[in-house]
């Protein structure tokens, strides 16, 4: 059966090529959301973020795997951290969130974030995460779980969270049609010139 959740994603950059990635994959009734922010100023950031997305895609496309298994995700991210560090292949954040009829499960590394925004509050799913990125050789994935998605799921890189306040972000998610929330959030941190201070990757998920 298809997922009962619907999603939208947006990438924006003031550069020719963004090092952020934001994708959503279906796994039966579940959605697998992945956001990664390749570290700027370090060679290989774009390759590192793309590797995280490829890992999430491979798991989502394997029907024999349990996408809610946080030990599985932790093992894969730790392996990625070791491989990237050994090859000096760049660094990246990673947030992977699985949402479906059996609840919400996720894991994060670095400073990209995942929130649930409802009418009155923000549930920061990644508030306990460790900031060392994949590729540092010292990354520690931190898992989180919720019984259900009560509100709108927002997963994004720090190109959003560094340049807008929590209040501004939550108000933007709540304002108007949720199908345009990713566009409104991108516009929130866009400069008057049309550029951006940092790459931005955003995924928004809501019940259909």
How would you summarize the topology of this molecule?
Blueprint (H helix, E strand, L loop, with lengths): L4 E8 L7 E8 L2 E8 L7 H16 L9 H18 L6 E7 L2 E7 L3 E5 L4 E3 L17 E5 L5 E5 L1 H4 L4 H9 L6 H8 L11 E8 L1
Antiparallel strand pairs: 1-10, 2-3, 3-4, 4-5, 5-8, 6-7, 6-9, 9-10
What is the makeup of the main sheet? 5 strands, antiparallel
Regions with pLDDT < 50 over 5+ consecutive residues?
Answer: none
The CATH class is identified as Alpha Beta
Supply the number of structural domains.
1
- Overall body shape: globular
Mean pLDDT: 95
Question: What proportion strand?
Answer: 25-35%
CATH architecture: 4-Layer Sandwich
Stated plainly, the CATH topology is called: Phosphatase 2c, domain 1
Side-by-side strand order of the widest sheet = 1-10-9-6-7
Distance between the termini: 14 Å
Radius of gyration: 16 Å
Q: In CATH, what is the homologous superfamily? A: PPM-type phosphatase domain
Question: Helix share of residues?
Answer: 25-40%
Walkthrough of the structure:
By secondary structure, the chain is of the alpha+beta class. It has one domain (5-207): PPM-type phosphatase domain (Phosphatase 2c, domain 1), CATH 3.60.40. It has helices at residues 45-60, 70-87, 158-161, 166-174, 181-188, and strands spanning 5-12, 20-27, 30-37, 94-100, 103-109, 113-117, 122-124, 142-146, 152-156, 200-207. The strands form 2 sheets. Strands 1-10-9-6-7 form a 5-stranded antiparallel β-sheet. A 5-stranded antiparallel β-sheet has the order 2-3-4-5-8, covered by helices on one side. The protein is globular.
